[in-house]
Structures are given as C-alpha cells and as structure tokens.
Design goal:
Blueprint: H1 2-88, E1 94-96, E2 105-114, E3 127-135, H2 138-148, E4 155-162, E5 189-190
Parallel strand pairs: 1-3
Antiparallel strand pairs: 2-3, 2-4, 2-5
Length: 192
C-alpha cells in the first residue's frame, strides 16, 4: 500500500507541475494581451488628443473665416456700389498722342479744349479731349501737345497730370477711398 501511495504522490506531483505550467502559459498569454490592449488604448488616447486639437483648430479657423466672410461681403458690396457709380458716371475717353513712335518716359494725361468759336472753319471736334502723352516731364508733355494743338488754331492746353490709367497707386481699390490712395509721384514709367 505504501507503493500505491508513493505512486499517487508522484502522480499528484506530475499533475501539479503540468497544471502549474498551463497556468503560467495562460498568465503569459493574458499578460501579453493586456500589454497589447494597453498599447492600443494609449494609441487611441493619443488619437483622441490629436482629434481634439484638430477640432479646436478647425473651430478657431471657422470663427476667423466667419469674420473674413463678413469682411469680403462688405468689400463686395462696396465694389458693387463703386461699379454702379462708375456705370452711371459719364464715359471718360482718352486719346493716344503717340501712335507711331514709341517714346521712353512717363505717361501723362493732358487736357485739350477746342473752343467752338475758334477760327479756321468747323472743327473736327469741340469740347474737351484728354490725350495720353509719353514724356520725360510735365513741361515736355505740355510743350509737345502745344505744338500739335496751337492756341492760334483755337485750342487751349490746360494741364498735364500723371496718367491715372497706368498708375496702380491712383486706381481705386476695394476698401480704399480717394483719401487713402498712395503716392502721386511722376506717373508710371513706360519701357522703350
């Protein structure tokens, strides 16, 4: 009977070793699964933080875009009003003085008036004309126009100003009134 008890003790010892190894394997598997789940949870937490940051940035940009949209709409209304004003204004025509010979210098706008009571018969035009002249200065522009349209023929040359057609600072821009325009200067420079 003691042999039987010895066999039973050895059998129980073997069973306990086998059960211990199985429990250790299950524990290692559970520990690895827990570590993997913790890594997934940490990644999800980082993704959540990033999503919250992106959402906050988007909300700030949205708030900024609302302000810009209102500003753009106001500028659009101002531009529409300026367009309507320009459409209702009388047409301003410019006549090119130098058609065949390109000249270096600035572009000047010179006003010439043809008097209706001018000597020399019927005039091809009466009233006021604005000529665009290329010249190095205001005095040269006036001089060139006076030689072509002399006072003795019934013309009167009034003034020469930098041409507003090609002067980017003189053109009105959205949100800028006449008092806010830059510069003046001697007008734009044409390349020869």
């Amino acid at each position: 009977m003691s042999v039987f008890l010895a066999y039973a003790a050895v059998g129980l010892l073997v069973i306990s070793v086998i059960l211990g190894r199985m429990a250790r394997r299950q524990f290692e598997t559970a520990r690895k699964a827990l570590a993997a789940d913790e890594a997934v949870l940490a990644t999800a937490g980082q993704a959540l933080q990033e999503a919250l940051r992106v959402r906050n940035d988007a909300e700030q940009r949205h708030a900024g875009l609302d302000g810009r949209l209102e500003q753009a709409q106001a500028e659009g209304r101002a531009a529409q009003q300026a367009l309507e004003t320009a459409r209702e204004a009388p047409v301003e025509r410019f006549h090119v003085f130098d058609r065949l010979e390109p000249r270096p210098g600035s572009l000047w706008s010179v006003t010439v008036v043809r008097r209706p009571d001018a000597p020399g018969g019927p005039a091809p035009w009466t009233g006021e004309r604005t000529l665009i002249v290329a010249a190095s200065g205001q005095s040269e522009a006036l001089e060139r126009v006076m030689t072509r349209y002399p006072r003795s023929s019934g013309f009167e040359v009034r003034d020469a100003t930098p041409c507003p057609l090609f002067d980017q600072n003189a053109l009105p821009r959205p949100g800028r009134g006449p008092a806010q325009r830059e510069g003046g200067g001697s007008g734009p420079t044409r390349k020869p």
